[in-house]
C-alpha cells in the first residue's frame, strides 16, 4: 500500500478489462478478489476499459448469471470479494467533490471493444463455443499437465487449456504449437467447464493444423503401414525389456495366440484387440476370449485388423487416422456378431470420434461395437453362475481412465463388474486422476508423463492395495512401466484378467 497508493493517485489514465459488458445499459462489470480495480477505475481522471466482444451480454440478468458461475467455478466461492458495476464516468457533482479532497476521479470513460480473431472464431462451428468462456480458470485447475508444469510453460499469453484454443486466433498458430502438445486429451477441462466448451476437440483441431514433431511424424508414418509396423515390433520385442523404464512389447502378440474359430454353433462374437492390446497387453484379449468361450460364444479374430486410428488422430494427423479407420472397417467387414474390444479408448474412437477425422461412416459396424466392461458386466449380471462364489475378496485399486470416465461415462460399471467377480474395489485418492499416458503426449513430454505416473503410484500406495486394475491398455502399460522403474511390487491388470481368474469353468 505504501508503495502503490500514490501511483494510483498520480496516474492520468486507469486501464481495466471487463468480465462482463452489458449492452442494454453500457455497464461494465469487474470481478476481483484484491480490490485494485477500485483504485484503477475511480482515481485517475480517465478510465479506459479494454475487452473483447465475447464479454458482451444483452441484459443485466445475463450478467447476474455469469456472476453466479464465475466465483464458484474459479475459486469455489459463493461470491467474490469485489464486484464493480461501472456505467459511464463520474457525474459532475462527484468530480467537484473529488477535486475538493485532492482526488481527481474519472471524468472520462472509454470502452475499446476488440475483435483480434474473435470474428473468425464466431464463424467457425468448431471454435465458436470458445467465445462463451467466462475466464474462471477451472480448466487450468483441472488440467493434469498444468498441475505438473505450471502456467508459464503451458501457454503463450493466455495459458491453460482455454489458452491453447485462443492463442492461434490472437497470436498465430505457431505460438501454440509447442504448448499444444502438452494436452493429453484427458477431457478434464471440458468436464469441469461451467459452460461445457469442447476444449479437447478444439485443441485437437489446432494440433491438426499445426506443426508436428519429428517423433509424431515417424510414428504415424510407420503405423499407417501395418506390415512395416509388424516387422519392427516383432524385431524390437525381445529387446524392449532390456531398456530400464521403457514400456515392454509382448514377445508373442495376441494375433499369434488367437485360435482359429471352430464355428461350433454358439452365438458369434468378434474380438477387436486394438493395436496396443495385441502388441503390449495380449493378456487382456486372452482373458476376453476365455470369458466369451465360457459364456458359450463362438469367437472370431480377424487377423488383418490393426488400428482404429486414435494414435494418428491424437498426433493431429486426421487424414492418417481416417485411413487407419477405413482399414479396420475393411478387416472387420466379414465379422460376425458383436465386436468387443478390451480397449475402452478405441471403442470411443471408433463409435464417437472417427467422423471428426473424416473416416467413412459405417453404422452397421458401429452398432455392433461393445466395450468389454459393459459387455462382461451384462454377462455376469444375467449369468452370475459364470464366476465362482465364496472365498476371500482380494482388494483391488481401480484406476478410472480418462476416456472411460469422461467420454464413455464408465464409473460404476467396472466397479460393479469386479464386485460380481468377488473383488473388493478401492477408489484411488488421486488429485490429477490422469496417469500421464495420453497417447502421443507421453512421447512429446516423457518427464511430465512420468511425474503424473509418480503421483498415480503415490495415490495407489495410500490404498494399501497390491493390485491395480483398469480397462484402458495405455494406462495399464504406463502405470506398470512406472512401477517397475520405482521397484514397486504392484500387479497391474486389465479388469478382464481379474474376471477371467474367477471363472467357474475354463473356456473352451
Keywords:
4-stranded mixed beta sheet, alpha/beta, single chain
Structure description:
- The chain is α/β, with parallel strands linked by helices and 508 residues long.
- It has 27 helices and 15 strands.
- Helices cover 47% and strands 13% of the residues.
- The protein has a 4-stranded mixed beta sheet with strand order 5-2-3-6, with helices on both faces. A 4-stranded parallel beta sheet has the order 9-8-10-11, with helices on both faces. Strands 13-12-14-15 form a 4-stranded parallel beta sheet, with helices on both faces.
- The termini are far apart.
Q: How does the helix and strand content classify structurally?
A: alpha/beta
Q: Given the C-alpha coordinates, what overall shape results?
A: elongated
- What percent of residues adopt helix (DSSP H or I)? 40-55%
Total of helices = 27
Tell me the Rg in angstroms.
Answer: 28 Å
* Strands in their spatial order, largest beta sheet: 5-2-3-6
Could you tell me the number of beta strands?
A: 15
Give the biggest beta sheet: 4 strands, mixed
Beta fraction: 5-15%
Gap from first CA to last CA: 79 Å
Q: Quick check: average pLDDT?
A: 92
| pLDDT < 50 runs, ≥5 residues | none
In brief:
The chain has 27 helices and 15 strands.
What is the topology?
Layout: H1 5-10, E1 13-16, E2 20-22, E3 27-32, H2 36-42, E4 46-52, E5 56-57, H3 60-75, E6 82-86, H4 92-100, E7 108-114, H5 118-123, H6 138-142, H7 144-149, H8 160-171, H9 177-180, H10 188-192, H11 199-209, H12 214-223, H13 226-240, H14 254-257, E8 268-271, H15 275-280, H16 282-294, E9 298-300, H17 310-314, H18 318-331, E10 338-341, H19 344-357, H20 363-366, E11 369-371, H21 372-382, E12 395-398, H22 402-407, H23 412-420, E13 424-427, H24 441-444, H25 446-463, E14 467-470, H26 473-486, E15 491-494, H27 495-500
Parallel strand pairs: 1-4, 2-5, 4-7, 8-9, 8-10, 10-11, 12-13, 12-14, 14-15
Antiparallel strand pairs: 2-3, 3-6
Helix pairs in contact: 8-11, 18-19, 21-23, 25-26
Amino acid at each position: 500500500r505504501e508503495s502503490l497508493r500514490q501511483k494510483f493517485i498520480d496516474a492520468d489514465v486507469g486501464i481495466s478489462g471487463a468480465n462482463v459488458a452489458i449492452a442494454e445499459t453500457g455497464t461494465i462489470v469487474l470481478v476481483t478478489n484484491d480490490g485494485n480495480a477500485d483504485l484503477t477505475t475511480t482515481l485517475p481522471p480517465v478510465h479506459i476499459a479494454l475487452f473483447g466482444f465475447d464479454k458482451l451480454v444483452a441484459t443485466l440478468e445475463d450478467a447476474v448469471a455469469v456472476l453466479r458461475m464465475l466465483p464458484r467455478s474459479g475459486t469455489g466461492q459463493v461470491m467474490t470479494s469485489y464486484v464493480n458495476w461501472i456505467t459511464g464516468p463520474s457525474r459532475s457533482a462527484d468530480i467537484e467533490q473529488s477535486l475538493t479532497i485532492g482526488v481527481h476521479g474519472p471524468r472520462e470513460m472509454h470502452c475499446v471493444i476488440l475483435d483480434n480473431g474473435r470474428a473468425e472464431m464466431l464463424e467457425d462451428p468448431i471454435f465458436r463455443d470458445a467465445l462463451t468462456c467466462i475466464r474462471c480458470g477451472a480448466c487450468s485447475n483441472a488440467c493434469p499437465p498444468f498441475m505438473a508444469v505450471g502456467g508459464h510453460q503451458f501457454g503463450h499469453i493466455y495459458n491453460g487449456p482455454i489458452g491453447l484454443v485462443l492463442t492461434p486466433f490472437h497470436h498465430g498458430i505457431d505460438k501454440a504449437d509447442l504448448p499444444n502438445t502438452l494436452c493429453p486429451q484427458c477431457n478434464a477441462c471440458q468436464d469441469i467447464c461451467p459452460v461445457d466448451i469442447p476444449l479437447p476437440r478444439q485443441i485437437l483441431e489446432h494440433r491438426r493444423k499445426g506443426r508436428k514433431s519429428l517423433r509424431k511424424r515417424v510414428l504415424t508414418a510407420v503405423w499407417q503401414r501395418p506390415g512395416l509396423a509388424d516387422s519392427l515390433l516383432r524385431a524390437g520385442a525381445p529387446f524392449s525389456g532390456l531398456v530400464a523404464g521403457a514400456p515392454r512389447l509382448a514377445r508373442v502378440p495376441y494375433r499369434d495366440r488367437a485360435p482359429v474359430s471352430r464355428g461350433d454353433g454358439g452365438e458369434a462374437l468378434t474380438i477387436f484387440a486394438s493395436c496396443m492390446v495385441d502388441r503390449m497387453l495380449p493378456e487382456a484379449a486372452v482373458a476376453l476370449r476365455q470369458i466369451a468361450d465360457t459364456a458359450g460364444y463362438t469367437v472370431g479374430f480377424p487377423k488383418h485388423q490393426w488400428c482404429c486410428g486414435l494414435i494418428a488422430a491424437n498426433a493431429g494427423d486426421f487424414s492418417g487416422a481416417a485411413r487407419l479407420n477405413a482399414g479396420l472397417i475393411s478387416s472387420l467387414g466379414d465379422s460376425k456378431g458383436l465386436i468387443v474390444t478390451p480397449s475402452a479408448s478405441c471403442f470411443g474412437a471408433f463409435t464417437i470420434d472417427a467422423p471428426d477425422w473424416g473416416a467413412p461412416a459405417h453404422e452397421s459396424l458401429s452398432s455392433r461395437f461393445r466395450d468389454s466392461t459393459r459387455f462382461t458386466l451384462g454377462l455376469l449380471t444375467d449369468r452370475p453362475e459364470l464366476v465362482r462364489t465364496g472365498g476371500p475378496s482380494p482388494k483391488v485399486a481401480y484406476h478410472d481412465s480418462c476416456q472411460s470416465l469422461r467420454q464413455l461415462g464408465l464409473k460404476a460399471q467396472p466397479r460393479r463388474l469386479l464386485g460380481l467377480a468377488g473383488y473388493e474395489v478401492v477408489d484411488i485418492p488421486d488429485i490429477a486422476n490422469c496417469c500421464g499416458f495420453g497417447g502421443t503426449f507421453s512421447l512429446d513430454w516423457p518427464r511430465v508423463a512420468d511425474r503424473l505416473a509418480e503421483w498415480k503410484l503415490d495415490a495407489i500406495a495410500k490404498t494399501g492395495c497390491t493390485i491395480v486394475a483398469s480397462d484402458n491398455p495405455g494406462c495399464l502399460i504406463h502405470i506398470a512401466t512406472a512401477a517397475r522403474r520405482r521397484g514397486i511390487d504392484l500387479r497391474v491388470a486389465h479388469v478382464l484378467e481379474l474376471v477371467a481368474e474367477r471363472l467357474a469353468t475354463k473356456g473352451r
